[in-house]
């Protein structure tokens, strides 16, 4: 006797198809969220900005001194107070090319206000809109540095510092947070774990090492 032909279980098939569709949709959402998290937004541009490396450059010396800074980092402030004038003079005299890389590694220390990101973004705004005032703005930001663990300066306060440095043109860029994500992206790109981080001609220095520290001081001396 012929066996009855089994009928397809359309309910089970439908459930399976629905599960696949949901999984594909969830995968697309995860990819989208990851892209949103890593998307640095529009790249800053300008005569002193390298849009690929995130460097803001001063001077045209043969040797390049790169310094990675976070505006909430107290050691960065101490470093600038001690060596900033000499570094900036060496760049102005054409002895070195001085690159500042504003980055973010201390957002977690600003009560959720993302101060490091906002401050780094503001530096890019000034470098783009008023490049001749970028150094003055950076110095003023360190002079007005908030304590770690506080919410930091507001965007309006940062804009006022920019205006005080002669960079009124950057105010709207700062208030809009145009380059807020760039500091985080640059920290990740260059694998920066702490600030200040210093490099000479692309070689990262260990500033606790006497030989490396001597190279640094010789370069700016």
Automatic annotation (TrEMBL):
Domain of life from the UniProt record: Bacteria
Keyword terms of this UniProt record: Disulfide bond, Membrane, Oxidoreductase, Redox-active center, Signal, Transmembrane, Transmembrane helix
Residue spans crossing the bilayer: 12-33
UniProt-listed Pfam families: Thioredoxin_4 (PF13462)
Domain Thioredoxin-like fold: residue ranges: 63-216
Gene3D superfamilies attached to this UniProt entry: Glutaredoxin (3.40.30.10)
MF GO annotations: oxidoreductase activity
InterPro entries, sorted: Thioredoxin-like_fold, Thioredoxin-like_sf
Family: Belongs to the thioredoxin family. DsbA subfamily.
PANTHER family associated with the record: DISULFIDE BOND FORMATION PROTEIN D, GLUTATHIONE S-TRANSFERASE KAPPA
UniProt protein name: Thioredoxin domain-containing protein
Organism: Microbacterium esteraromaticum
């Amino acid at each position: 006797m012929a066996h009855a032909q089994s009928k397809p279980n359309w309910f089970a098939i439908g459930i399976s198809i629905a599960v696949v569709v949901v999984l594909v949709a969830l995968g697309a959402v995860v990819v989208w969220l990851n892209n949103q998290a890593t998307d640095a937004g529009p790249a800053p541009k300008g005569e002193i900005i390298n849009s690929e490396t995130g460097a803001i450059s001063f001077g045209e010396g043969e040797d390049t001194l790169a310094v990675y800074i976070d505006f909430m980092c107290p050691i960065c402030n101490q470093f600038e107070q001690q060596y900033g004038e000499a570094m900036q003079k060496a760049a102005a005299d054409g002895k070195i090319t001085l690159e500042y890389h504003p980055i973010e590694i201390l957002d977690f220390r600003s009560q959720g206000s993302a101060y490091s990101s906002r401050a780094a973004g503001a530096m890019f705004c000034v470098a783009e809109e008023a490049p001749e005032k970028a150094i003055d703005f950076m110095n003023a930001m360190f002079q007005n540095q908030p304590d770690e663990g506080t919410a930091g300066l507001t965007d309006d306060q940062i804009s006022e510092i920019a205006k005080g440095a002669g960079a009124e043109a950057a105010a709207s860029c700062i208030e809009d947070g145009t380059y807020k994500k760039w500091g985080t992206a640059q920290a990740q790109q260059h694998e920066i774990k702490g600030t200040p981080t210093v490099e000479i001609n692309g070689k990262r220095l260990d500033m606790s090492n006497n030989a490396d520290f001597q190279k640094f001081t010789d370069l700016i001396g």
